[in-house]
Amino acid sequence: MSARKAKTTKKKIVSAAWKLFFEQGYDNTTVDDIVEESATSKGSFYHYFEGKDALLSSLSFLFDERYEELMPQLDDGMDSVEKLLYLNRELFTTIETTVSLELLARLFSSQLITKGERHLLDHTRVYYRVLRQIIQQGQQRGEIRTDRTVGELSKLYAMLERGLMYDWCICSGDYSLKSYAASVMPTLLASFRPEA
Question: What pLDDT does 81 receive?
Answer without folding.
Answer: 96
